[in-house]
Amino acid sequence: MSLNKNNILNYFLIFFLQQAFAQQSYEQENDSILPQDLDEVVVTATRTLRQLSSLPLPVTLISKTQIQQTGVTRLDEILNEQTGIIMTPDATIGGGEGVQIQGISSDYVLVLIDGVPVVGRSSGNLDLSRLAVGNIKQVEIVKGPSSSLFGSEALGGVINIITEKPSSDKISGQISHRFASFNNQNTNISLEQRLDKVGYSLFFDRLSTDGYDLTPSTAGQTVNPFENYTLNARLYLDITQALDAFVSGRYFTQEFQLDADMSEEEDANVQIQINHQASEKASFQYEFYYTNYKTDERISDPIDDELFIENNFDQQLLRPEIRFNYAFQPKNTLTAGAGSNFESLDRSLFAERVSFNSQYLFTQYDFKPLEKLNLILGARFDNHSVYNSQLSPKVSAKYDINPQFSLKASVGSGFKAPDFRQLYLDFSNVAGGGYSVFGKEVELAGIQRLQANDEIASLQVELSDLGEPLEAESSVGYNFGLVYRQNKLSSELNLFRNDFRNLIDTRILAAKTNGQNVFGYINRERVYTQGIELDLKYKLLPNLDVSAGYQLLYAYDKDKLQAIDNGEVFARDPETFETIRITREDYFGLENRSRHTVNFKAFYEIPKWNSYANLRLTYRSKFGLTDSNGNDVLDTYDNSFVEGYALVNLALGKTFFKHYQIQIGANNLLNFQGTNPLGAADTNTIINPGIQLFTKINIQF
């Protein structure tokens, strides 16, 4: 399939503008309240229903309409178009692509579906491409520490996927099929109905692709051919006037098509929730959640292709929880809750199955001491079987200066528990040179085992220092915002800073007789991210909504800044080969962080034609992948930088005979491909597959 990308863009813009101005007289002007604000209700920020515009926290909401009209099929695609949120590859070994919020990596971002956590982080990242969006009502994103409500992994923020609920007594649903470049095919079917006291919904999704290869000079493909399936069934019951229940089951399976190797993935969970309205002011929620994520991999040994390396992962989480809400007044609400987590993991890199258990209590008071002032005071206490107990408080406030201007402010602490890998990993990479990595709980036994086998040449730490407990990683986050809303314009300026302590880093425990090292984990790093976010929304014409977002980000390691100030960090100029002392101006910051990110969106609806069009642009400025000159600092003399680039996506859609829709679109319209600075000089390997065209047919009934 071949076409000129510039012509596509020109035709689209001409069509877009002509129809926009033609419709100006077709629709009446809107009143002073933005229409979308009436429907933008979120639950994640406070665990109670709140209108988005009234919240004292930085929250982003992605609506069902936006998801449908963009033509995306997976959660990671729509997240990448939001302000302060970016999908980025992880620099760690074995890491995939993760979501970054306010410069905070995906290890510290909690992902929920209907309020319960998604598991399956093999190296810190959570693969969001396995989450289909066909039955999503909206996506809610809370930026900054949210551990006061959600505990571990919410140190940097929360992404909550809210699924659609049935509302009609008639059977309704849809069937859609999307065909895209690289033979990427997505089919989904949904069915739902609400009958008096019983409601149900079913959702099925299938995604497959032929894959593609961006590095033809190396073995294997960049993305291997695969197919995956998602099945979600939900049941809603009104037991009495004051009692209702919700039951949901979800199953995901994926298989990659490899030659001699094998890679399979499964994700299954069940959620049961009972809501009890005890009185006009008091309500209870009882919740039970179980999830199991598994992968089975069999990869050919790089040294002997007749041998295979097994890499299996089996994580289970069981969580019962009870929540209580009491409304003293319509705008004064107390929320409290308690629960337990029972978690276990069986992995090939562990000596045996390991398990955690924890108990937690949380409380929150949402009230208005003054007519114009809203305060939210919250705290959570977590008691864990391995690491020290954690108390996570948070205070948020919103003051309405007048009907148009509001001030927002919040400060809160977050934490992340050491994960199974950092505590129990027991791994020796024979094929990769013979290095070893031990988690904190097994490092002493691992070193003693290597000593008994005469594999240790020298120790870098005392044996008495091994096995000391790791501290939970922690942070304090600050957000201060100014909001302006009037007539057609909505804008929000947010200043943020997140200070992290006790981030877990690797260290060398010993040198082996084969010349390799033994690595362990230790609390060491102190980093911070800070910056500015600006969001603008404007109704340019009655049916034309435009929005833009910008983030300025600074992300630094405090210890490395101190070393630079002490004159302890050097680099060699690649042109003059002169040794240079690194200054603060030379220090770029943390890996995989761009100083500037920009997004622009234009959504236009044409009611008399039953059609719509949208154009979305994202820009990411230069960022560095890793330290390449050996001084442990990402500086201007490294050669691992990816230059800034823009992605342009567009979609057009039209409805025929009320129930039939067709959508066409193009992602990465400018055909950005880029090059990998870490690739071999003679390969010129690209990092993006280029323009991707798609067509989608949808039938509603």
Uncertain regions spanning at least 5 consecutive residues: 1-38, 91-95, 680-684
Distance between the termini: 32 Å
How would you describe the shape? globular
Major sheet details = 22 strands, antiparallel, barrel
Q: DSSP helix count?
A: 7
Q: How much of the residues is beta strand, in percent?
A: over 45%
The helix content is: under 10%
Judged by helices, strands and strand pairing, the structural class is mainly beta
Mean pLDDT across residues: 87
Radius of gyration equals: 26 Å
What's the β-strand tally? 38
How does this structure look, described?
The protein is mostly beta strands. 8% of the residues lie in helices and 53% in strands. The protein has seven helices and 38 strands. The longest helix is centred in the first third of the chain and has 18 residues. It is globular, with a radius of gyration of 26 Å. The chain starts with a helix and ends with a strand.
Topology:
Elements: H1 5-22, E1 41-42, E2 50-51, E3 59-63, H2 64-70, H3 75-79, E4 85-89, E5 97-101, E6 109-113, E7 116-117, E8 136-143, H4 147-150, E9 157-163, E10 172-180, E11 184-195, E12 198-209, E13 226-238, E14 243-256, E15 262-276, E16 282-300, E17 308-329, E18 332-347, E19 354-370, E20 373-384, E21 390-400, E22 405-416, H5 420-424, E23 426-429, E24 435-438, H6 443-452, E25 456-459, E26 473-486, E27 489-512, E28 517-541, E29 544-557, H7 558-565, E30 570-572, E31 579-581, E32 596-606, E33 611-620, E34 623-624, E35 641-642, E36 645-656, E37 660-667, E38 692-700
Parallel strand pairs: 6-9, 24-28
Antiparallel strand pairs: 1-2, 3-8, 4-5, 6-7, 8-9, 10-11, 10-38, 11-12, 12-13, 13-14, 14-15, 15-16, 16-17, 17-18, 18-19, 19-20, 20-21, 21-22, 22-26, 23-24, 25-27, 26-27, 27-28, 28-29, 29-32, 30-31, 32-33, 33-36, 34-35, 36-37, 37-38
